[in-house]
Design brief:
By secondary structure, this protein is α+β, with helices and mostly antiparallel strands. The chain folds into 2 domains: 44 residues, no CATH class; 165 residues, no CATH class. It is 21% helix and 22% strand. The chain has 7 helices and 11 strands. A 6-stranded antiparallel beta sheet has the order 9-8-5-4-10-11. A 3-stranded antiparallel beta sheet has the order 3-6-7. The protein has a two-stranded antiparallel sheet with strand order 1-2. β6 and β7 form a beta hairpin. The longest helix has 14 residues. The radius of gyration is 23 Å and the shape is elongated. The protein starts with 17 loop residues before the first strand and ends in an 18-residue tail after the last helix. The N terminus is likely disordered.
Amino acid sequence: MSGSYFDPNWTEKVTVPVKRVGERWEFFYGGDVPVKEGSFAQLTLEAAHITNPQFREHVTRELTVKILEEGTPLLVALSDQVPGQAKPYWPDLRPLRAPAGTTRVERVHLGPSRLRSAAAQQDPEHLRGGLWLKLKGLERSELLGSTVLMPPGFAQPEAVSLNHAFTLLSQAYETHRISNTGNVYTRFFYQERDGQWHPLDELRMGAQATGERQLLNSLWAEVEQKLGWRHTPVVDHPRTRKQKK
């Protein structure tokens, strides 16, 4: 199982080597692949082996989409072991998804962009911060974030990245640790529209086969259209009857 938290929706997966034979995929060592009708899978192969140039261009095209705006709150799971230390507000983190040993949660916010160049100053959109999802075809690759505004009263008000923000918080509250680094995908949580908090790893690694999260659902049609997978729907305008004179 990947990640440091337990996902109740997780199911065991296997990798099956296959080979193209005629117009079908067969088990590499011979015979059909015995799976249920309608099963979903991901096929990994060398891009050079794709014979249709247009299809190859679709599945290798890179796209970066903004999924969270500047000012969006994020929660950070920490293991504070200071005796008698007052614990802050504890939200509904779905504890089964919180990393083992989590005893403290701090709230930060996505800050402005790190771009400070003269060219960026001419386009206000380049100065806005947030969180972006970088894709290659329909495959998630990584999350790209702007600066991070630290909790009110924190010694350093702004961090340059999610990793930097976690290190600062860990140095302040996880004094028992030798190293103050951590996996931001399992330590940082974003809030879905239903009010529940989920680790960023679900944005990076969510599988289409099991359904996208609400946050991505609202963007996915636009993403598919930009990647060339979904054509703009043709709207049929209702015909109006001519009134008899």
